[in-house]
Amino acid sequence: MNRPRQHVPHWGTFLLSALVATALLAGVAHAQASNPIISQLLPGSIRAGSAGFTLTVLGANFMPGAVVRWNGSARTTVFFNSGDLEVTIPSSDVSTPGLFSVTVLNPDAGISTVATFTVTSPVPVIVGTNPASAIAGGPAFELRVLGTGFTSFSVVYWNSEPLETTFVDGSTLSVQIAAAEIAAPRSATITVVDTGPGGATSNTWNFSITEAAVIFPQIAIGGTYTTVITVVNNDAQEDNGTLKFFSQNGSPLQVSASTIPPSVGSAFSFSVPAGGVRIFTISPLVPAAPLTAGWARLDSTRRVLTGVSTFQTKEGTLLTSIAGVLPASLTETGRIPVDNDATPGVGRRTGFAIVNPGTANINVRITVYDENGLAVRILNPPELNPLGPSSQTARFLDQFWPPYANFKGSMVLSVESPGTHFAAVALSISQGPTSLGLMSVIPVLIGTGNR
User: Fold this and answer.
1) Counting CB atoms within 10 angstroms of each CB, which of 35, 41, 237, 256 has the fewest?
2) CA atoms within 13 Å, Cβ hemisphere of 235
3) Taken in order 266, 269, 274, 280, is the CA torsion positive or negative?
4) Superfamily assignment of 125-210 in CATH?
């Protein structure tokens, strides 16, 4: 019986099969080799709002004609070699923060995996608020934080607590401040934190919640001095007020006031109609009494009353000096320009009147700066350390440090403990050859000192 003949493959067939397999493998290898690989982006990030820039893409398997794509859109690309490409990124691509995809597409359709480029948020900077301060005990209100570098990712923090924040534009954020946050005088801290990619934290801004009272840091009665306080109601409704007087040690100051009828005391209550005024001429209880300095505060029911104080000196019937004292704001720091000249016949002196309207001691230091803004001395005079509740001090700079009788520059008053406040006015007196002493009272430049 014949057995079936086994088939034996021809050697040529094996050779042909091997050549075909090798060619196929080579084709696969070529296809794999053409897929570009991104290993690094230089730079890897940039701040939103930056100008256009050149992005370097490093990697492997880049082919001539390869194109870099930004979020899927081709950008102008320069081929250097198989591992180095440069691409032009316009400013419009980095105008807003976010994560952006970068890929490389070879001419043979080979495409890389995605690399991520980060456009970070700009650094926020606070330059102010609107309103600039609030009155203690007032109602809830909208606070606008003003600055630069704000984005839709920006969040306002009030005393380290985040608030629901409305993005208005790159320079304005809006938040609501509850009445409970301004119930008492203090200083609140405001920062802006950007929660976007690479977000940063702004500088700290101090927001003052000020005493509701109107404060006149300097009054003078007795000797040759008389003080006049004019209370004004600029509102469309009547308001009730109380005018109180304090001595330098914080105790009530008994005065005679030219009310109708004339009154004696340390506190006077009254009403002021819409658009009206009340004028109080203040003098000592005894006409021949020596000079007494102190301060006054005006409280009102609806917090709309304001006013001005003036004090004047006379030699007999000759008016020798008159100075107006505007209400002073509560602050933690304030700068006073200094122009002292002890030259005979000139006699210019600079000082201040400072009040602590609070219920606890405060400590105040004086930092003296020369004309170039360089700090030259720090003074901690005992009159201000501490300055007691409701107390007042009125002194000239050379009384604290006699060498400053001839000095030009400035002095900065600042509290040692953040959150405490004072009210102050600057005093300037000139005793020239033709005057008996001309006094001027000017506002302190609020918040212009370096802590």
Assistant:
1) 237
2) 17
3) negative
4) Immunoglobulins (2.60.40.10)
Strands 292-300 and 239-247: antiparallel
* CA atoms of 405 and 398, how far apart (whole Å): 5
Scored b (16 or more CB within 10 A) or e, 167-192 reads: eeebeebbbebeeebbeebbbbebbb
pLDDT in tens, 382-402: 999 999 999 999 999 999 999
Positions in the chain short of pLDDT 70: 1-33, 260, 432-438, 447-451
In the prediction, which pLDDT does 5 show? 39
Q: Which fold has domain 329-451?
A: Hypothetical Protein Tm1070; Chain: A (2.60.290)
pLDDT of residue 29: 41
Homologous superfamily of the 33-120 domain (CATH): Immunoglobulins (2.60.40.10)
Q: Percent of the chain having pLDDT more than 70? A: 89
Please list the residue range(s) of the chain that carry CATH number 2.60.40.10. Answer: 33-120, 125-210
For domain 214-327, give the fold: Hypothetical Protein Tm1070; Chain: A (2.60.290)
| Backbone angles phi and psi of 228, in degrees to 5 | -120, 130
**Residue 304 in contact with residue 273, Cβ under 8 Å?**
no
- Please state the φ and ψ torsions of residue 180, each to the nearest 5 degrees: -65, -25
Longest Cα–Cα distance of the chain, Å, equals 161
pLDDT at 430: 82
Q: What is the pLDDT of residue 17?
A: 46
* Backbone φ, ψ for residue 442 (5° rounding): -130, 155
Q: Which residue has the tokens 């602590």?
A: 356
- Looking from the CA of 226 toward its CB, the CA atoms found within 13 Å total 15
Give phi and psi for 24, each to the nearest 5: -65, -45
Percentage with pLDDT > 90 across the chain: 62
Q: Where in the chain is CATH 2.60.290.11?
A: 329-451
Instruction: Tell me which residue has tokens 């100008």.
Output: 51
